[in-house]
Specification:
Order of helices and strands: HEEEEEEEEEEEEEEEE
Helix content: under 10%
Radius of gyration: 23 Å
Distance between the termini: 26 Å
Strand order of the largest sheet: 5-7-8-11-12-14-15-16
Strand content: over 45%
Number of strands: 16
Length: 253
């Protein structure tokens, strides 16, 4: 399902960028309006003014590697954990500078794979916290998935403020996430047939997610990094796990 969402978002973004690059811009030259092709902006208001509105990176889609960079020695991870983020942002230019402030809303979902271990979310006697223990019957794959409703806040720099689909760009900021849900899924083989065991839970996880972010790139493509300020679990409700991710970002519109 996640792969379908990521593919759809990527196709939507690329289609939108292609459409934006074909916009006509009216330029007043010698008292006559001349329509030209320009990928930097779309017109608004009276065409005789020659005023253009630059793209503002409204759409932001990120796909990358995700893991717990800070964790107890007893917690073992493996494989390529991944993260997928999709946001709609509104950009506020800072006067006539090459800087802007942006805020948005979107979805964050991330996966981490455990190495012959499992996450236990049930109470056992006096134990009232999530625990990662050795899997007595390890399967082929065991993953922990979390999903947040997330709002990014960025301070952005564009070297080409008239055409943000071209030129150097960079951004620093934070994301604020509200916990939506989590589940674990184990893939194992029973009698030669692959079987998936899935468990949904909201217990013990932190209800909020705060992370520091940064992006740097050229045109519509950039690389991003994210480091969580909060742990995956509530304090004293699970192991101290700090998620972090790096990957590629597509922006446009």
């Amino acid at each position: 399902m996640l792969k379908r969402i990521a593919l759809f978002s990527l196709l939507f973004t690329l289609s939108a960028l292609s459409f934006a690059q074909k916009s006509n811009v009216y330029v007043n030259s010698g008292g006559q309006d001349r329509s030209v092709k320009d990928s930097s902006a779309v017109t608004f208001g009276n065409k005789n003014t020659g005023i253009v509105k630059p793209s503002r990176d409204f759409v932001m889609v990120q796909l990358g590697y995700n893991n717990w960079v800070s964790k107890p020695d007893s917690v073992k991870t493996k494989g390529f954990g991944y993260v997928f983020n999709a946001y709609l942002c509104y950009d506020f230019p800072i006067k006539k500078s090459n800087m802007s402030f942006a805020a948005g809303l979107g979805i964050n979902t991330s996966v981490v794979y455990l190495d012959k271990q499992m996450l236990v979310n049930t109470d056992t006697g006096s134990v009232t916290a999530a625990r990662i223990i050795a899997d007595p019957t390890p399967g082929k794959r065991y993953k922990v998935n979390t999903t947040y409703l997330q709002a990014p806040f960025e301070l952005r720099y564009f070297s080409n403020k008239q055409n943000r689909n071209m030129g150097f760009k960079a951004a620093v900021g934070v994301t604020v996430g509200a916990f939506l849900g989590a589940h674990t899924k184990e893939l194992t083989s029973v009698g030669g047939i692959n079987v998936k065991y899935k468990e949904n839970t909201k217990r013990y996880y932190s209800p909020w997610n705060f992370a520091a972010t940064a992006r740097i790139g050229w045109g519509n493509m950039s690389v991003f990094g994210s480091y969580n300020i909060t742990n995956a679990f509530k304090e004293n409700n699970g192991p101290a796990l700090t998620p972090a991710s790096v990957g590629f970002c597509i922006t446009g519109l």
